Amino acid sequence: MNTNDATHPEDTSPPSASPWLDAEVVAPLLSTTAHTLRRLARQGHCPIVVRRIGGRWRFSRRDLARFLSDELTGEAS
Description:
The protein is α+β, with helices and mostly antiparallel strands. 45% of the residues lie in helices and 16% in strands. The chain has four helices and three strands. β2 and β3 (56-60) form a beta hairpin. α2 (23-29) crosses α3.
C-alpha cells in the first residue's frame, strides 16, 4: 500500500460516494430526460440543488434523496 493512499482517502473513494450526480443518473429517478434536467437547471427551475462543476451540471445527491423522500411521503415542497 502506498503511504499517499492513507493520507488522501478521498482519492480512494468509490465514484458513487460523490455528493454530486450527473444529469444522466438523476433523470431516470425523476422520470424525465437529462436534456430536460439541464434545461431546468439553466432556467433556475430544477426541483433539486444544482451547480455547474467542471463545465457540467451536477445535481446534489443529498437534495435528490430529500426530494424523492418527500415525493414518496406526499409532502409538498
